[in-house]
């Protein structure tokens, strides 16, 4: 039995649109004020848990493979599986970002928002999301360094009595990019698996005749 992430393509589009809407709101606030409001992070977390439970319930109801609980367990078991999936994603996302917060790399709002996204994508997919987000931040940092080198400001000593200015980078928009790419990959993988299963089924029927 194949293990799909999304129970249907229609559900996938609603799922992705919901998450991206919340992340766009977080990015808008983050880039304007360099802060992610707590209500956005908590809303993203709550809606993510509900979305994952709905996804798990649908998969269970359809008799498809869920996350860790036995397949074919029905609506109730799928609902529980979705809840465990979301909580595990939150725990992993929070732990990883907490380490970065302790190191002074990010702020407390970033920790909450990244943990909230874990409720949507789960404990395994949160790693490629974080990887893509980190890659975006590295690319942006390299662009700024190159621009400063071209302007001759990279090694310029600050004026006496004036502390050097440090640009604070928003962490939320790279998270949105990472989430979009990973979810698009999962949707594409689901479609390939469905097509492959249909082809195998058709081949078996043709051989039987």
List the helices and strands and how they pair.
Layout (H helix, E strand, L loop, with lengths): L8 H25 L4 H24 L12 H29 L5 H44 L20 H37 L1
Helix pairs in contact: 1-2, 1-5, 2-3, 2-4, 3-4, 4-5
What does this entry look like structurally?
The protein is mainly alpha-helical and 209 residues long. It has one domain (9-208). It is 76% helix and 0% strand. It has helices at 9-33, 38-61, 74-102, 108-151, 172-208. Helix 2 (38-61) runs antiparallel to helix 3, helix 3 (74-102) packs across helix 4 and helix 4 (108-151) crosses helix 5. The protein starts with 8 loop residues before the first helix and ends with a helix.
Structural class: mainly alpha
Largest sheet: none
Number of domains: 1
Number of DSSP helical runs: 5
Radius of gyration from CA coordinates: 21 Å
What is the helix/strand order? Answer: HHHHH
**Residue runs with pLDDT of under 50 for 5 or more positions:** 160-167
- Shape summary: globular
Cα separation of the termini: 24 Å
- Share of helix among residues? over 70%
Q: What is the count of β-strands?
A: 0
Instruction: Round the mean pLDDT to the nearest integer and report it.
Output: 86
Fraction in beta strands: under 5%
């Amino acid at each position: 039995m194949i293990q799909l992430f999304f129970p249907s393509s229609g559900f996938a589009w609603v799922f992705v649109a919901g998450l991206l809407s919340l992340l766009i709101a977080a990015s808008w606030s983050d880039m304007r004020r360099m802060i992610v409001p707590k209500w956005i992070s908590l809303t993203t977390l709550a809606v993510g848990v509900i979305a994952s439970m709905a996804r798990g319930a649908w998969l269970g109801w359809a008799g498809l493979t869920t996350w860790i609980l036995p397949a074919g367990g029905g609506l109730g078991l799928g609902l529980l599986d979705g809840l465990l999936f979301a909580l595990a994603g939150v725990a992993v996302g929070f732990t990883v970002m907490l380490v970065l917060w302790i190191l002074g790399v990010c702020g407390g709002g970033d920790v909450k928002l990244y943990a909230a996204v874990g409720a949507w994508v789960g404990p395994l997919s949160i790693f490629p999301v974080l990887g893509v987000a980190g890659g975006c931040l590295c690319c942006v940092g390299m662009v700024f360094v190159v621009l400063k080198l071209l302007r001759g400001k990279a090694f310029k000593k600050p004026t006496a009595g004036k502390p050097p200015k440090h640009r604070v980078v928003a962490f939320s928009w790279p998270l949105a990019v990472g989430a979009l790419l990973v979810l698009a990959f999962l949707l594409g993988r689901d479609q390939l698996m469905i097509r492959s299963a249909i082809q195998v089924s058709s081949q078996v029927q043709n051989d039987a005749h």
